């Protein structure tokens, strides 16, 4: 499995979650053994110029915190893009580290149907309107090289248009949207045919006092014989042992008993986050 993340240039530079994800990228138990980040860098975030959106020259500079290689490639050259993507995949499979592909491109139209970019970026969009679209540019090159004929190119375009038109026509026949067709649910038996949840019943989760006492005693003991532990820790364990004896619990012991009972049923428990290693919570 190879994870691929697709980003916009403004999002890549501006969303804190990107930076946080890079710092998780090589941590034990969190790593995906390398993610390929593809940045569709159309040099404008909604209607914001890069100079108003970030302080670094490239949107991809945030990836430098983990020394990920960053490939800047001209998206008007499909073969260069393909080559760079192959190199990125090879890097990831060889070194199991993150890699970034920065597709330097442009957005031909506005952010959405309501957005007219000429209002806010007139100079940039005058230039964009003069650009030959990438499909035409590449087709002209292939025809000039003799790689494909004009007829072959036109047939491919017609074939693709036909697929889109047929799908569009079919979509008009759909009168009802079945939400369940879009749900990749891990619980196939959870919903009825109409998509409504079935009545839920919860099995009893209580456990015997004997088992709770056992977990409390284990949680207040040291697993290794003659192991010298910190005096502060030994006080905590002693207090926990007393609580178990007196049939009272504090928050930490209650959590211990919950986790312990789940472990006793053979279910793996993984704790992660700040301070869990030393049992603060």
Automatic annotation (TrEMBL):
Domain Dehydrogenase E1 component, residue spans: 2-179
Biological process according to GO: tricarboxylic acid cycle
Family matches, as Gene3D superfamilies: 3.40.50.12470, 3.40.50.970
The protein's required cofactors: thiamine diphosphate
Molecular-function GO term, any one: thiamine pyrophosphate binding
UniProt keyword list: Oxidoreductase, Thiamine pyrophosphate, Transit peptide
Superkingdom: Eukaryota
PANTHER family the record matches: 2-OXOGLUTARATE DEHYDROGENASE, 2-OXOGLUTARATE DEHYDROGENASE-LIKE, MITOCHONDRIAL
Protein name: OGDHL protein
């Amino acid at each position: 499995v190879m994870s691929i993340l697709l980003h916009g240039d403004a999002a890549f530079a501006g969303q804190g979650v990107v930076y946080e994800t890079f710092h998780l990228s090589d941590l034990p138990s969190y790593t995906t053994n390398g993610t390929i980040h593809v940045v569709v860098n159309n040099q404008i975030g909604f209607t914001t110029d890069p100079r108003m959106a970030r302080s670094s020259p490239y949107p991809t500079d945030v990836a430098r915190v983990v020394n990920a290689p960053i490939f800047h490639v001209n998206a008007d050259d499909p073969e260069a893009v393909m080559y760079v993507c192959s190199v990125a995949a090879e890097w990831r499979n060889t070194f199991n580290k993150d890699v970034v592909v920065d597709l330097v491109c442009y957005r031909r139209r506005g952010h959405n149907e309501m957005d007219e970019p000429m209002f806010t970026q007139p100079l940039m969009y005058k230039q964009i309107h003069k650009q030959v679209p990438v499909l035409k540019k590449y087709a002209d090159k292939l025809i000039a090289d003799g790689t494909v004929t004009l007829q072959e190119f036109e047939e491919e375009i017609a074939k693709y248009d036909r697929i889109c038109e047929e799908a569009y026509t079919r979509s008009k026949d759909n009168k009802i949207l079945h939400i369940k067709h879009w749900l990749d649910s891990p619980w196939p038996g959870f919903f009825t045919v109409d998509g409504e949840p079935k009545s839920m019943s919860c099995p009893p989760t209580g456990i015997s006092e004997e088992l709770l006492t056992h977990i409390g005693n284990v949680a207040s003991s040291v697993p290794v014989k003659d192991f010298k532990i910190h005096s502060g820790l030994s006080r905590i364990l002693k207090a926990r042992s007393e609580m178990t004896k007196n049939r009272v619990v504090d928050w930490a012991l209650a959590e211990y008993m919950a986790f312990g009972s789940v472990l006793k049923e053979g279910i793996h428990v993984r704790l992660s986050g700040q301070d869990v290693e030393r049992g603060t919570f």
